[in-house]
């Protein structure tokens, strides 16, 4: 099982290597100008360099950053990346972590459906390297949301395997993210 998951981590890391090793930023669609600026503002807010995410008068002549949820600010992966890294590095790391987390969610779902570990890792690779997932990388909110789709489905399957109140409550966690 470790070998199959290791293969998945290696493939995702290879895919994002320019961002992880060389500080490159993807320039597809909204990612560089909109996503990077919103992650920069999240970084500034987390480090008390920005007063509020509720309204930024210096952005687009005034913009309700947090209220609109356009930046996916409460996505835990964005928060961790923005807190620990500079914005350009955090941007690539957030994409890498999102791809890893979503693939691992697919893997866990497949294992709950009693698929073997190699079938599960193939599904994780197929999903995360598929067209929809890759096109979702151009939008900070979309790719942050895609992470939790597989985990929500996995939580539902976990509940269906043995329904209980505790398992039902667990479904709310990835659905909230």
Question: How do the helices and strands line up, and which of them pair or pack?
Answer:
Elements: H1 2-15, H2 17-22, H3 31-46, H4 65-68, H5 76-84, H6 87-112, H7 117-128, H8 131-135, H9 140-161, H10 165-170, H11 172-176
What portion of the residues fall into strands of 2 or more residues? Answer: under 5%
Order of helices and strands: HHHHHHHHHHH
In DSSP terms, counting alpha (H) and pi (I) runs of 4 or more, how many helices? 11
Main beta-sheet annotation: none
Summarize the entry for a quick read.
The protein has 177 residues and is mostly helical. It is 71% helix and 0% strand. It has helices spanning 2-15, 17-22, 31-46, 65-68, 76-84, 87-112, 117-128, 131-135, 140-161, 165-170, 172-176.
Model description:
- The protein is mostly helical and 177 residues long.
- It is built from 11 helices and no strands.
- Helix 1 (2-15) runs parallel beside helix 7 (117-128), helix 3 crosses helix 5 (76-84) and helix 6 packs across helix 7.
- The longest helix is centred in the middle third of the chain and has 26 residues, at 87-112.
């Amino acid at each position: 099982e470790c070998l199959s998951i290791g293969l998945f981590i290696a493939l995702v890391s290879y895919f994002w290597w320019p961002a992880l090793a060389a500080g490159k930023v993807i320039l597809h669609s909204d990612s560089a100008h909109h996503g990077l600026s919103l992650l920069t503002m999240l970084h500034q807010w987390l480090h008390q360099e920005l007063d509020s995410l509720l309204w930024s008068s210096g952005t687009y002549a005034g913009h309700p950053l947090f209220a609109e949820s356009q930046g996916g600010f409460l996505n835990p992966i964005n928060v961790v990346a923005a807190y620990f890294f500079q914005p350009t590095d955090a941007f690539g790391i957030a994409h890498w972590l999102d791809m890893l987390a979503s693939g691992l969610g697919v893997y866990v779902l497949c294992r709950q459906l009693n698929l073997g570990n190699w079938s599960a890792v193939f599904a994780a690779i197929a999903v995360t390297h598929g067209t929809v997932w890759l096109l979702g990388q151009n939008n900070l909110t979309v790719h942050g949301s895609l992470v939790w789709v597989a985990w929500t489905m996995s939580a539902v399957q976990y509940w269906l395997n043995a329904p209980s109140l505790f398992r039902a409550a667990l479904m709310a966690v990835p659905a909230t993210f």
